[in-house]
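To: structure desk
From: M.T.
Subject: fold request, one chain
Message: Could you run this one when you get a chance? Sequence is below, nothing fancy, just the single chain.
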Amino acid sequence: MPLLPLGELAPEFELPAVVGGVKRKFRLGSQRGKRNVLLAFYPANWSEVSSSQLVEFQAQSEQLRALQTLAVSVCVDSIMNTTAWEREIGPLDFPMCADFWPHGKACALFGALREQEPMRGAGDRVIYLIDRAGKIVFRQVYGLDELLSFTALLEVLGNLS
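Reply: Done. Structure tokens follow.
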């Protein structure tokens, strides 16, 4: 599926998540009217690039809160795998969602499920910014081994506030 267009309402999903070592459910629609969402799809837990990306989200958590934004990560790995990895790189105070079953359903909704090798069936490294109204205001695809520019994201978020 292609990436979702700018200005469109983000589709709803609910996934198991780990937040600071605690397992819970995360529903995207629960943020509507409350906060912006920085939605980060990534290929796999335990990779150096994914670790760097999520640790950066944690390092910028105060700045994100000041911009009324919640970071949310999504990977097709299981919740058990995600929980173990979060213990290794965290604690992280944002939802780390496991899109394991049905496999990659949320990734596919957002056009972020890899259909080609390498890593077919994993998530692509895709960032969406969703405003408080639930509309997609930014989206960007990154290479599997490419880190996003947090500065560019902060600029977009600054324009939303």
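Reply (cont.): The mean pLDDT is 95. Let me know if you need anything else for the meeting.
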